[in-house]
């Protein structure tokens, strides 16, 4: 019984889920497994089907094909109440006419055990950092506080799975960062399997154990934040996650390409296409203290230097690549040389280990 | 058939939890059944009756041909048409002027003016007719003004209908006017447009849909109203009265059915036009509008005040003369105060028992109707899946808008008075009248409740389901309390409408079970105008009293709810 053994650690498993609205395919054969206690982020641009997938898992909508299993139990067509999850929506969906305590205790059973519910509510409010808010009404709370109450309500019945649909996107940046950390801490303490939808890649990379990047109803890549960032497996992921330099290139050999009138080496094999785009993160561009004739090193004119706190961002115009702009991000303290000045010509290395090549023409 | 319905599982809905899904579909189909019984089947029977002869044999379009060849009926049709057009042409400018003065001025006491403008809603359509008789009738106070002329006839009916339809037009035009976008006016001012130019290029185009839809509503109301022409029509015969004569007077059901179908035409037509317009208007309203706030202006406010005063005086006169006359010994010769006209002992029509019946009917309609409408709107807006059933329910909820009360009443006669109908025994009972009233006024009530429900977060049910709380608990604990103000509005609307309506009920009431509005007709027919005025006054007072009561209740509720409605 190998499959069962394998399934033990998988809390939630989706196989080949599809959902169509008329002729439009919102989800196209999506398969995904989430381990117990894992924090997974669904990341993708607007309209890529994240919410649709979440609603299928929640039982608020039914798939046209595929199956969903929760703890090895098939729940593809089960009613929401027969699944075991708590959910937080972007709008919070707090009941406006019920106090915070009544909102949180809404799903606690049996209804008449008020005393026990009171204790549970207090415990949850302490946990989400809102002690003493029992008698307030949602309209009296700020957005961040409402979000905490919604979270407490979703956790009140101790569900095995927590579903979050863009829970932080309606908050301002500062509150969002703080809540993001608290959310992660809470999730780790409770060990609740969590699936969060977001279109904010920074948020996804910061909070998730694993990130699922979606595009147009399909999964593009599943991996840890570092994998997604370092080793994007498709051009879409590379463009969507983080910032990058894109250099048009032509292949000439198994590991060699031409960019302008330079030849560059790549560690990884090239995709089988004549026209390529090279991908390089700005922080991987190395500005050398002095010229030496090493591979993948070119001369570039410093065009502009902008201060960015911890990192300094430098706009470079590489020689021999007309019209090409190269951004580098360097830590000023680590730069082993005199401060840069605009107009200066500097040697720049594009490390072979960091260069990735994707097939295709210019990125959009 | 019902079991097949229960087994039917739509895609996109929830299955599984047997109890909850079953209760949901049971609820849905029970509501559909109630509306089919109170609305669908009676309407079908009108169509059936129109193609049958007196004994129930199928005769095709013979009845239609007969009606078309009958000079009396054709004259009644052309009279109705002429009347509808005249009243529409007169009431639209009046209502627009009133709405403009209310919404585009900075006058004090606009709430009060608004109440005066809407006051005709509280009265049966017979009230202005009776007032007209007292003012310009054979013993009228101002009879000399007519220079030997006579109020009975076309212009009398026009005046009465003006009063009766004014608040309906006012409500629609006020809605349209208040949706104005301040940014357009600012742009107009910046571009150097004067007040007249702004009015012609911004205000009028902004309300043109409202004006058209008000015109359609008024036209339909006039065509199917029956009270005013009955009292002051004299020899001026209209279709609505003709339908009544054919069915109740001559028991000529097939011909009555044909006339009923004729009356259905304008209503259906206006519904179609409205729907087309609604679709276009939505596109016009997508921009994010800024609410309009009028700038101070003496001249404009003075004009507005004059307008409001003039129109209010007219409305209050047509309401007040009837009320006053009911307390006066012998109009206009002995103006002493008396309550004698309220004794109703010596007159036909049921007297106080008719009034009590009306009160019962209105109360039952308000209570049961609000309940039904709320559950119906919840099923339409808040239950997942069951797409077919829900669109059927939605269709049935919107249908009454296209069915004049008179036509509905005819349908009830044909359907419930049919000897083969097992519900035949129900005919003439209070229960059937309650059903008829709820069906007649369902659309407005449903739209009010549905609008309130739509403003609730769509995810409430989803959250509740994830917490394993059944939907009815959420309806009870969240939807109902949050929508209570709208439901109070619905109850008020149903009560007042049931209290004042005549058109549908006159067909299904029996003399033993008379109603206030009907007894007004009976008394007026018998020449007891003072008693008729007294009964009409009772109706007005009850409607106004309940409205006041509900307003107080609302304020009380508002105070209790303030804690969660208001931040801070
Ligand atoms: N009920 C529906 N009927 C028709 N189309 C739908 C429906 N629900 C979603 N869609 C379509 O499916 C696509 C995916 O929608 P979904 O809500 O899953 O996007 P999303 O990834 O959550 O986007 P966002 O970040 O904007 O929330 C969209 O193009 C949407 O228009
Ligand atoms: Mg979404």
Could you tell me the strand content of chain A as a percent range? Answer: 25-35%
Largest sheet of chain B at a glance?
2 strands, antiparallel
Instruction: Return the CATH topology of the largest domain in chain A.
Output: Rossmann fold
| Rg estimate of chain A, integer Å | 25 Å
Q: Could you list the spans of chain A in which at least 5 consecutive residues all have pLDDT below 50?
A: 1-7
Pfam families (chain A): ABC_tran, TOBE_2
Keywords (chain A): ATP-binding, Cell inner membrane, Cell membrane, Membrane, Nucleotide-binding, Translocase, Transport
InterPro entries (chain A): AAA+_ATPase, ABC_SmlMolc_Importer, ABC_transporter-like_ATP-bd, ABC_transporter-like_CS, AminoethylPonate_ABC_PhnT2, Mo/tungstate-bd_C_term_dom, P-loop_NTPase, Transp-assoc_OB_typ2
Protein name (chain A): Iron(III) transport system ATP-binding protein
